[in-house]
Amino acid sequence: MASATWAVLPEVPRDEGMRQMTTPELINDLHSRMDAFYRGDPAGVLDEQALVNADALWAAEHDGESVPLAVVSILAWLHWYRYQALPDGQDPDDFYMAARMFDVIAGTQYEVPEPMLQYLKLRSGDGPGGQMDAVAAGIWLQRAAYRVMHLDEAMTSQQVLDRLPAGPFPPHDNQPDLATGLSNLGAALRLRFSRTHVHEDLDASVSVMRLAVQWAREGDPRRAGILSNLGVILEARFSHAGLADDINDAIAVCGQAAEAAADGTPERATYLANLAVALKSRFDVDGHLADLDGAIEAHRQAVPLLHGNSDRAGGLARLSSALLARFRQTRDPSDLYEAIQTSREAVDLSPGDPHRIGYLEELGIVLYLKFEISSDLNDLHDVIKITGQAAGEARATGIVKAVLLTRLSIALLSRFGRIGKAADLENAIALGRQAVAASSSDLMLRPACLSNLAIALRSRFDHSGNMTDLEDAISSLRDALNSTSLDSAARAGCLSNLAGALRVRFDRIGDLTDLDQAIMYSRQAINALPPGHPKSAEYISALSGRLRARFQRLGDPANLEEAITVGRHAVESTPPGEPAMAECLSVLYAALRIRFQYAHDPADLEEAITVGRRAVDASLPEKRDRHGRLAN
Questions:
Q1: Beta strand 3-4 with 67-68: parallel, antiparallel or unpaired?
Q2: Tens digit of each residue's pLDDT (9 = 90 or more) over 33-43
Q3: pTM of this prediction?
Q4: What are residue 139's phi and psi, to 5 degrees?
């Protein structure tokens, strides 16, 4: 047995009243403390009892001349960890004790931290001269990374610069490695930002990671990883602050990382995936399709390099998401079909994978889009099966559960609309209620869940005429509106749905207050939409219909005039070939016809006939409304 033969540890007072632990118990105790340190909890190694047990282990294993190297290794790491966790000024004893012990086991089977190895070589005179400042900086960087990541210690780039020696750059081969320590500290600062959301942490992370690139040797295989990490952090700062230079730099350095990585390696797959994320982020802001094309190509190159079912499933899912984004831009069905294929592969590769629910959800989304194009009920059946499976695997409450229940409810409601099976409608409502309950703690998601439940309740009212369903739908929509912020993208939809439900209740019971509120909410819905929104014409046309209804109730010509004005605007705002065109034309036709009946102006009749014919031509042959438009 190899052994150490130098002096025993300094005496540490013991509690003589405690039962003496056996050697295996002492070893297990110290290992558990160091494992906790590694996971981010330094309390165990800083506890005075750790030193007591270390002293007891030394005494138990010291035979008067030597100590087993396994014991020396345990005690060396204990003091190394204590040095990293203690504040400046309280740590020198632990550092030098760790150095003495690591010096004994260096060159054996036992591991020594790289910065300590460099320190020991220089101290013994084996390393190049004049490098102790760099070695000290490397030791400090490792310590700083731990303290930032696990002790929530703040750090500025100036503090780092103050610890670094002068160049040259790139560093010579015989200089100690500082790039790894800088990269680890940059990553720790990025994680701290994710907890604190303090912008200075992100700025410091970028600055430190740029220093890591500067200190990386040319030809060092780790350089590509450092470049890619810098790109990830720059992309994060772009997402937070929106600076164009950051995302452009992120794409540049991620591209350099991918080019520098060895062909056919999993590392290259990671760097390509990071490049794809940066390109997609720039596309989301600038809308240049070339960036989305580049992201898809990067994902396609990355997938074959991934080994292991979990990694490959993740790569396929990222490719599917990018293809789905391009399909939504171009409506090219080949992208949708490829997204379906890659999503299926991701699901097939992911039994037991913690991300499986997300893969199932993505597959349900792309299949539902295919159903909207094809109207093939088999696609809808698949959506219901797959989304139901995902909802069943999700935990009982939370955002994911609420989203999946809502998607499943929507799919069942769609199938009810196609085949009229009452069980689908009942299940859609039940799932909608479960989604609302699961989303109670999420203010962003709850309005969408309430709105979906209201749509399902409104469908059952349309089917059965039960006023309780309509009242519940209106109540849910009011709750949704009250839960939606003024700048929320979902607000316009909530307002429009509430206006529609109030109009239906007016038609049923005749309370003018409902119609006035429907008109008010219609105006607010239109104003809540951004310019050029595809729903604008639909909302404007609905307002026209409600103004016409108010004229028919009160006889106020101003209501009819506005109905015709906004009805024309709705038609003019609808691109040719859009499904909404037929409805917009029909609403305008109805207003023109009523004005002719009251004012007997032949011009209104001529325009009404022209608009009515256009409505018939714009109606799809299989639509039931076409027959009514032909009759009109």
A1: antiparallel
A2: 999 998 989 99
A3: 0.79
A4: -65, -45
